[in-house]
Structure formats: structure tokens, C-alpha cells
Amino acid sequence: MILMTAALIAALGSATGHTQGQTSGADTQRRVRAADSDETVAVTRGTRLSVNSFAGEVVIRAWDRDSVRVQGRHSGRARVSIRPTGPALVVSASGAPAAVDFEINVPVWMPLKVDGTYIFISIEGTQADISAETVRGDVVIKGGASSIVAKSIEGEVVLEGGRGRINLSSVNQGISITGASGEIAAETVNGHITLTNVEASSAELGSVNGTIKYDGTVSGSGKYRFSTHNGNIAVGVPENASAAFTVRTYNGSVNTNLPLQGGGETRRGQRVTYTLGAGNADFELESFGGTIQLRKRGSDVPLRRVRDKDKSDKDE
């Protein structure tokens, strides 16, 4: 990690945020400006790409060529380096600690590793391992296969369509996963976690102050662990799924429109298990201060409350 004075960090953070705002709303304007550096390097299968940048954007798109094209937009004091190091092609910037915007084309098969401090990361179309890590910036990935790791401290993490072993984390923003499949793990402190239209063979999701939403299929022997301290948990699964739901909430309620069996009424802080079908898959759901919803996937029908024993007599 590069150590800088508080004033310089603030200045760079402001400049990076300004750059990101411009490119997200006016990508065409960025492309009109000619690249300050532009180099294409032929690569062979087995080569991986490693990109390290302090500040700016790293935008990577797949193409159908066995070569890597690196375009950089930067000040005259910055220098872009592209060098082979063992099995890796390493791209980095040196010079003044200012923003460098990279636009990189890579083969579909190429594994990627991207890391930096004040960088926005966008990766699209690759079908190989991806590792993307930043401190202050969003990470947006479309694609990826085998192993997908994405981390940010101050940014949002978004994944569309990846498959394989998926591990995503953020501290102060949310995590969104759409259309992915495989073993999924996601963790955040102050953000929501949303999984939509996924096929997870297993899932472990955790948040301290956010809501957790899961919409997807259920693997016959899958294990699913969802926990949040101050948020709600909403799980949508097919009505014909086979799963056992072990739930616990301290200050919330359990609501459902699924044909669940067993369990009885919930008691505050007590683990209770409900069964759907034969109960093959294993769900463990825990929220300290939130509601737990178990619903038919795609259903908007109002849920009924599994009543709390502590309140049943008063309610009557």
C-alpha cells in the first residue's frame, strides 16, 4: 500500500470520483480522446494478465484475438509499462501518483488479476479466472469462470453471469449477483447482498447492517448459510424444491407462503427447522433484528406469519 498525506489522498479521491462520473455517463467522450499510449502484444495460451494501477479506471473487454492491446490515457509524467514476467504479462504505471485510465482488450481465455487503490474496475466477456481488488472504487464483472474473486472497501461489487467458485466482498457498499452459478460466498459490513436468478450449489452470505435476498434454484445436497445482524433475509425458491430451513431471529418474525412442514411456532432466539419436500438441501438463516421471509420463487402473494409463542396468547 502506498502511504500518502491526507491532503494528497483527498485530492486524488476527488479527482478519481470526477473521472468515474464522467466515464459512466459519457463513455463516447472518453473514446474521442486519443490514447496517450497504445501497444499490442501477442500472447499464447497459459499466459495471464496482471494489472496494477494506483488511481483511475481499468476497463477490460474480451476479444477473439490471441493478443493484448493496452491503451492508456494519462498525464505526460506517467509511464505505462507492459512486460512479460514468467507466465504473466504485467501492466503497470509509474511516475507521478496521478490517475491513469486503462482500456485493455484480452483473449476470452486469459486469466486476469487487477489490483489498485483508487481504481474503478470493469471486466466483460472473459471466461477464465478473475481476481479484482480495489480500496476505493466499484468492481463490475460480466462473465468469468472457474474462480472469481472481487473485493472493494468503499465500492460496490457487481457480478453478472459468472460461474465457478465465486467470492465477493465489500465493507461499506452492497454486493449484487445476477445469473451466476456455482459455489457462492459474499460478505459485507454496511451493504445489502442481492442474488437474483442464480444456480448456487452452495451459498454463504453475511452482512452486519444490510438485507440479504436470495432468488434461485436449490441444489439437492447444497448448503446455504445466510446471516445478518440488522437486516432482513428474503429467500425465494421453487415450490417443488427439497430443503430444510433452520431459522433463528431475535427481534423479528418468520413469514412464508411455502407449504412448510414441522417446526411449530417460533420462539425468540430459538432455532426452529421447517421442511419443504424431502428436506434434502440445508438452509441456515439467522437475523438478530430483522424479518426472515421464505417464499415461492417469483411469487408476490402475501406471506403468512409463523407466530411467535411469546406473543400468541396476547394476539388471541
Which labels suit this protein?
316 residues; elongated; Pectate Lyase C-like; disordered N terminus; nine-stranded parallel β-barrel; mainly beta; 3 helices
Reconstruct the topology from this structure.
Layout: H1 6-25, H2 27-32, E1 37-42, E2 48-63, E3 67-73, E4 79-85, E5 88-94, E6 101-107, E7 112-124, E8 130-134, E9 139-142, E10 145-152, E11 157-160, E12 163-170, E13 175-178, E14 181-188, E15 193-207, E16 212-216, E17 223-228, E18 233-237, E19 243-249, E20 254-256, E21 272-276, E22 281-287, E23 292-296, E24 304-306, H3 309-315
Parallel strand pairs: 2-5, 2-6, 2-7, 7-8, 7-9, 8-10, 9-11, 10-12, 11-13, 12-14, 13-15, 14-15, 15-16, 15-17, 16-18, 17-22, 18-23, 19-22, 20-23
Antiparallel strand pairs: 1-3, 3-6, 4-5, 19-21, 20-24
